[in-house]
Amino acid sequence: MENNTDFCAIDVGLDDFDSHTGGCTTHLATYLLNSLASKIKSTMLFDYPNLVRLNPSIPWKTRGNGAVALRILLPCEITENLESVVEMLEELIDDYMKKMSIEPESTGIEPGLVVARHTALNGLVWIYRKAVSDIAFIDQDLYLKLSRRGIVFSKRFNKRGLVGALAAITWILDEESDYTYELLTYRSRKMYSRDRCIDENSVKLFDELTRGSTFNNYDYNEDRVLIAPHGPDPILYGIRGEDPETLKIGLHVIRVCEPIAAWTIFRTNQGTDSHAVARTIDSLRPFRTGKIRGVVVSTPKILQGGAVLVKVFDSTGEILVAFFKPSKLTEVASNLDIGDLIEVQGHVKLWNGVQVLHGEKIALLSISRKVHCKAPPCPHCGRRMKRKGIGKGYECEHCNITILNPVLDCITEIHTLSHALYLPPPHAQKHLVKPVERYGREHYLWMFTPIPVASATQIIEPLEFL
């Protein structure tokens, strides 16, 4: 795109505009894109807006734990001076925050805004990979290195959110990263304090019509709609799937009791297990996510409250793994046997200074075999013989005979679990966890494609949006 003489590609990263008074980073992104398209009529996108979920175990994560990247095509004369582009975006963000009554000082948000020419991101995919699975910081040295590349940091919105903003714009470089899409609809501001009203049967119909292309719309075991968030934020509902056009069906099928003020489609890392980095036990650290493979070496322990602890060992060490009741994985964990080979993904927390892996998914790879053997019967009188000791055989006290290598009477115990992948029910799955129905549907090939802004986002009711 950079070689085009008319348009140049820039990446805009946003994070931590999620205010408890009603703000939301995706809502802000919707406002920015539509405002830019109004200001500069030739504005195009070279990708759908990106919603990038970050490490779910970080203590200071935002409410939705998601940053946003906007992939924008603008006339090259406008992008020659990126500082002026940042200033234009800052003015639009200021306008948004005033209309939404968001004051960073009183709401506790730490917003970040960063802008880069797309070619300036080469070699920086490690920032995304670090932010999605570990603790990431921007020190002064990295800040200066990135600035020398031509990446421009907002001086007005330059707090902790810069980490997420950088992670969002560098996600596009990860050729090994799977992706999905989410269509978010937004409420009229006057509706924020009211309960959402979404027709349950229409959600089931949408799920039926799009089965195989969408996921986590409805939890049939719990009779529970999964597309609606909770709380006084701008999102009415969000539907997730494999392609944008299928998601747009939801706008016509899903029935709601209030007007949809706007909608935006995001390409996202949700439902991809992007944070499940394969690790050895000795490489686990607090707040680091990962996927380990090891042998169960302790009998499961059920804690007060219902959580289950098991100890897992690999060639590098051992760690306690905890499973919690809401995940329903406690039912699996409590039936594990010593010797079972399992694969667990999750994130590490400290329990009184001890590292514990909080499990969010478990696969039983190999089942241990428990064999119970009884002493053989005496060949003369039929009574049970007694073991004399290691290598000394079995003796019948009644007949006074000894047999060194008798055939024992053995029974193999049947394991209560089978080889399988076990996940929490849909309503308990976190954003990044890949659901069962997505296995075999991964996407790894992504192409630069010019997209009209109106194909990715629309503000339907401008007077109701803010």
Can you put this structure into words, describing what you see?
The chain is of the alpha+beta class. It has three domains: 7-273 and 441-465, Alpha-Beta Plaits, CATH 3.30.70.2200; 281-368 and 415-430, OB fold (Dihydrolipoamide Acetyltransferase, E2P); 370-412, no CATH class. The protein is built from 13 helices and 26 strands. It has helices at 25-39, 76-79, 82-99, 104-107, 125-133, 140-148, 161-170, 200-209, 244-248, 250-253, 330-333, 453-456, 462-465; strands spanning 7-15, 44-45, 50-53, 66-75, 112-117, 152-158, 180-187, 214-215, 218-219, 224-225, 235-241, 260-268, 289-296, 301-302, 308-314, 317-323, 341-351, 354-366, 370-374, 386-389, 393-396, 401-403, 409-413, 420-422, 451-452, 457-459. The strands form five sheets. Strands 1, 2, 3, 4, 5, 6, 7, 8, 11, 12, 25 and 26 form a twelve-stranded mixed β-sheet that branches. A five-stranded mixed β-barrel has the order 13-15-16-18-17. Helix 1 packs across helix 3 and helix 5 (125-133) packs across helix 7 (161-170). The protein starts with 6 loop residues before the first strand and ends with a helix. 40% of the residues are buried.
